[in-house]
């Protein structure tokens, strides 16, 4: 049985009698990059605030490293780093001085500042005033701050929001490197499926406050069932032939298609058509995209 380092039980938050997070059961293991995915307003940030003890659940519980957050909040959060929404910093100070403020609160060695600056690749810009940083550099400084206490769990809320493509790539590659190189498990939220798909090992999809999918990224990919399209002469007659031979096949007035057919089934269909003197012009595979699956799951409130 897998050891869960983050686990919620029936986590619920009601505001004005309305459940903005409803009965959410998150399971996240050691070494996971957990993609917490959902449309804007789905309940991601509210859930993350409950995971960090920034807001109290109306019902349910949060366990991190096997300890209940409500009872052992300080001990648990010492091993958790976070970046929620936009990073806080003093614009007139440089990166080193900004990190020094947090280092004193965390009571970690001074050498840790150089270590985290190297991790996020800000060493050469460490003595520049932060107000002159690009948005991507500010996000990397925010992650450096979250890493300062040498956490075992890192929680990042929309860390690529507002970044240009180069900045998104930088943050994505940084996130992917941390579990391998530093042993840090990461929960990263986003409304962009394309981002989560490229870095997550495990995915939870939330919409309207409810967790509607949770499993490995490969399980989500397997739901993208393939459809085989057949270009043939006399498609209506070919369709009727294949139906009569027991094949599950559709005809859209232009071409034939078969969803989820195995290689053997496709070969048998082509053989039936050729032996009955139909010309087979092409056989194409069309996979349902993860994006279309996500849109189906979230009722069309999908990512951008």
What can you tell me about this protein's structure?
The model has no long low-confidence stretch (mean pLDDT 89). With 304 residues, the protein is of the alpha/beta class. Helix 3 packs across helix 4, helix 4 (111-119) crosses helix 5 and helix 5 (135-147) runs parallel beside helix 6 (165-182). The protein folds into two domains: 4-217, 3-Layer(aba) Sandwich (Rossmann fold); 226-287, Alpha-Beta Plaits. The chain is elongated and about 80 Å long. Helix content is 36%, strand content 28%.
Q: Which key features would you list for this structure?
A:
Rossmann fold; alpha/beta; 2 domains; 5-stranded antiparallel sheet; 11 helices; Alpha-Beta Plaits; 28% strand
Briefly characterize the structure.
The chain starts with a strand and ends in a 7-residue tail after the last helix. Helix content is 36%, strand content 28%.
Task: Tally the beta strands.
Answer: 15
Per CATH, which architecture of the largest domain? 3-Layer(aba) Sandwich
Give the % helix: 25-40%
The domain count comes to 2
Structural class: alpha/beta
Strand arrangement, largest sheet?
A: 7-8-9-4-10-11
Task: Report the uncertain regions.
Answer: none
Mean pLDDT: 89
Question: Major sheet: size, sense and barrel closure?
Answer: 6 strands, mixed
CATH superfamily of the largest domain: P-loop containing nucleotide triphosphate hydrolases
Order of helices and strands: EEEEHEEHEHHHEHEHEEHEHEEHEH
CATH topology of the largest domain: Rossmann fold
What portion of residues belong to β-strands?
25-35%
